[in-house]
Amino acid sequence: MPVRLTEKSRVVVELPMMMFLRLADGDGKMTAREMERFDELLTSRSWCHSSLLQRSLANTEAEKAELWKQYTAGELRAGIDQVAASLDTILGSLAPEERPDVEHDLVQFSREILKAARAGAGLFHGDSEAKATFDTLLDLIKRPSARAAVQVKAKSAVETKPAALNLCSLLVGDLSAEMFCRPGKLPVRCVQVIDETHDVKTFRLVADPPKLFRYYPGQFVTLEVPIDSNIVRRSYTISATPSRPHAISVTVKRVDQGQISNWLHDNLRAGSTLFLDGPHGTFTCIPDDAGPYLFISGGSGITPVMAMSRWLCDTTPEADIQFLHFARSPDDLIFAHELQLMERNLPGFHCQFVCSQVGEGSGWTGPTGRISPELLTKLVPDLKSRSVYLCGPLPFMDAARGMLEQLGFDMTRFHQEVFGGVPRRDSSAAEAQASKLAKIIFSASKIEIDCKGSDYILDLALDRGLPVAYSCRAGQCGTCKVTLLEGSVEQDCTNALTPDDEKEGHILACQARPIGRVVVDL
């Protein structure tokens, strides 16, 4: 006789989360609209016919944060066989008179998530994967034989499954495209955490299942972190080198009030799993620049030029590189020992560290002070003959750029990364449109806003509480990419958009200002 389930039974509490994940994240492209609709279905349960499901959804809502954590850690799985098994357990335990209401509610729940998935895909794009998943779920809900067939197939696959893929397997056999990560969203597992300084950690990540990474040194990825039942995104430069493709790393400084940096420092451990999206960015020294190079970095802005240095040292050991790093104190120097090792092993590599605060008794014998034209020319007398790559906090980069211009440097050989989350916009261009009236319509949210031509779409969305994803706010990471359905916009920067993005009507919400009436899929 089947066990009688209650609203507190684990299988009943977990099933809505599993079905949502199957529909929304099966393609690795969960949208803010899908998450918002899921929250609405959990909160407003009047749509339920079944009293059991209505009560259990309250428990799902209460445990949502923990369920998210289990999902990102790989403990809660949403494979179709797991969903089929849960459906079989629940529906098989019900009395015949109870089953129709539960089946109706599960179909309705799935249909509402499908609608959100289609809305998130945009007016001209259907979410075909979500529709296929919905059809499969509908079949599993209605037909016990379909559930049994899925479970038999899954059991057979487990019994015949070959040994789990490990990193060593990528070293043998024929090279193929399947061995490499594709650009986009990817599950990864942390394999090591390295303390670089008192407030900086490096997290080494491998694809799960293992694949090789391909990217340009200097590019970045966007991490997705579950915090307080929400997915929060933040972009970090890959500090590893693509010449060692089995793992990547991000090096993160703990920032006061930094939501994600603090979460990573406090929670991410070897064995933890999460998702990343990428690679993104155009800040790189390859393939068109043969040097000689001058890498200038400030603070944790060292990461992209460290990635470039590692690449060049692995692939072009004769490269002529001057590496100039500015830090607050000797205790804040990141990668110092590795850089000194590079200098010992490679005749063309020279690194110099400058500290702005040196206490008595520190033993520091290197240069002190802040960046200045005099210091630059003293430390790198031939800087005008080099290609300059600069990264650090925005005030540091603005100062360094101005000094190079003052010294008469050829700025066609100057390259700069945006580091940090400070908006980088063309204020003069925005002000010129301040007197022009505009209207923005967020189609998925059914919100219309009368605004000015100087207003940015991201700011307007955030002011209205819309769950729009963003990270750098400088037009570099692409996290705030949305689809323009009607009208035209002006964008201060489009670095994060590919030609395909532009063909498909994507814009960067953090950089886009409306021209007249516009409709955005948000």
For the structure shown, list the relevant keywords.
six-stranded antiparallel beta sheet; alpha/beta; 36% helix; 522 residues; 16 helices; globular; 4 domains; five-stranded parallel beta sheet; Rossmann fold; 16 strands; Elongation Factor Tu (Ef-tu), domain 3; single chain
Topology, element by element:
Layout: H1 10-24, H2 32-43, H3 51-62, H4 64-72, H5 80-93, H6 99-121, H7 128-142, H8 144-160, E1 184-197, E2 200-207, E3 220-227, E4 230-237, E5 248-253, H9 259-267, E6 273-280, E7 293-298, H10 302-315, E8 321-327, H11 336-345, E9 349-355, H12 373-379, E10 387-391, H13 394-406, E11 414-416, H14 427-432, E12 437-442, E13 447-452, H15 457-463, E14 481-491, H16 499-503, E15 506-508, E16 512-520
Parallel strand pairs: 7-8, 7-10, 8-9, 10-11, 12-16
Antiparallel strand pairs: 1-2, 1-6, 2-5, 3-4, 3-6, 12-13, 14-15, 14-16
Helix pairs in contact: 1-3, 1-5, 1-6, 1-7, 2-3, 2-6, 5-8, 6-7, 7-8
